[in-house]
Each structure stands twice: as C-alpha cells, then as structure tokens.
Amino acid sequence: MSLTRTLTKTRVAIHNDVDVVVAIQKGRMLAQAHGFSTNEQYITVTAISEVAHNIINYARCGEITLDIVEQGKRCAILIVATDAGPGIPDVQQALKDGYSTGAGLGLGLSGARRLMDEFEIVSEVGKGTTVTMWKWRNDNNNRAKNSRS
Ligand SMILES: Nc1ncnc2c1ncn2[C@@H]1O[C@H](COP(=O)(O)OP(=O)(O)O)[C@@H](O)[C@H]1O
Ligand SMILES: [Mg+2]
User: Fold this and answer.
1) What CATH number corresponds to the domain at position 95?
2) Which residue has the higher pLDDT, 148 or 31?
C-alpha cells in the first residue's frame, strides 16, 4: 500500500453565487495544473458546482475544500463540501434521480455520484451535511506529461 500524500489544500467559504464560481474556478485550475484531462476537469467542475449550489440552496452557507492526493503514481482530486445546515433526513432518497425538496431537477447529487469515482454523504438532521468525492486522474490517456521523453 503506497503512502497517500496530500499535495495541496484549498478552502473556499461558500456564502453566495460568487463563492460558488470561485470554487469552480479553483477546482478547474487545480485539475488542469495536475494534468487532468479536459473531460476530467469538466467532471470535477460539474460536481463542485452541484454540491456548492446545494450548500447555498439548502444550508445557506458552508465550505468546500479541494485537495490533490497522490497515492504512489496515482493522483486524485478530492472535493469535500461541508455545511452545518438542516441535514438530509433520507440520504438514499436524496440520491435518487429526480428527487428534490427544492426547485431543482433533483439530479445534482445523483449526477455527481455517477461522474465521480468515489462518493460519500454523511448527514445528520439538525447538524449538517458533508459530501466527499474523489476523481482519479486517468493516466492511460497518453498525455504528453506521462509519455516517455
Ligand atoms: N447540503 C444539503 N443540505 C440539506 N439538504 C440537501 C443538501 N444537498 C442536497 N440536499 C437535499 O437533497 C435533495 C437532492 O439534491 P440534488 O440531487 O442536488 O437535487 P436538487 O438540488 O435539484 O434538489 C435536495 O432537494 C435536498 O432536499
Ligand atoms: Mg442540487
């Protein structure tokens, strides 16, 4: 088992739409700087956007941390969205396509779960919600950075 190393930690407080955009931009820059493909960057920003909007819509405020984690030669972006909002009474239900208690489409959490490689929600009513998501960089894409020089 190779050592897990966290390379960078970026914390973005989420209070309004501008903060959401900042989190998205930082996530994209981080993924780009660490050699994630355009598609992987897109997946990452989509997932960040969904959990950040959920913070605004359901918890009012919270924070998102963005990390790059190295495990041996593998590299992942780790996104953690935390709030101290109302919590989710039934997480399994919230993860179903089309389930929404708000005005949304109910596809945010389910979509993010599908797009990301690892996805976990810990939520307690009256205490808050933490969504943890990982996206591993696919190094079989023949990107120049990893090819023999
Ligand atoms: N951070 C959160 N705090 C409390 N409830 C949440 C949070 N995130 C999601 N939820 C609940 O899960 C439901 C599904 O979320 P999501 O899939 O993003 O769909 P939508 O945002 O369109 O409703 C929301 O309608 C809401 O009830
Ligand atoms: Mg949503």
Assistant:
1) 3.30.565.10
2) 31
Q: Residue 103 sits in which domain range?
A: 4-139
146 belongs to a structural domain: no
Ligand at shortest distance from the CA of 129? 1
99 lines ligand 1 (CB under 6 A): yes
Q: What is the pLDDT of residues 44-94, one digit of tens each?
A: 999 999 999 999 999 999 999 999 999 988 999 999 999 999 999 999 999
C-beta of 110 in contact with ligand 1 (< 6 A):
yes
Bridge partners of 79, per DSSP, are: 66, 133
Domains identified in the chain, total number: 1
Q: Point out the ligand 1 atom lying closest to the alpha carbon of residue 85.
A: 3
Nearest-CA residue for ligand 1 atom 21 is: 104
Would you say residue 80 lies in a domain?
yes
CA distances to 45, 49, 87, 89, 112 from 22, in Å: 11, 10, 24, 29, 19
Residue pLDDT, tens place only, 20-45:
999 999 999 999 999 999 999 999 99
How far apart are the C-alpha atoms of 18 and 135, rounded to whole Å? 24
Tell me, yes or no, whether 144 lies in a domain.
no
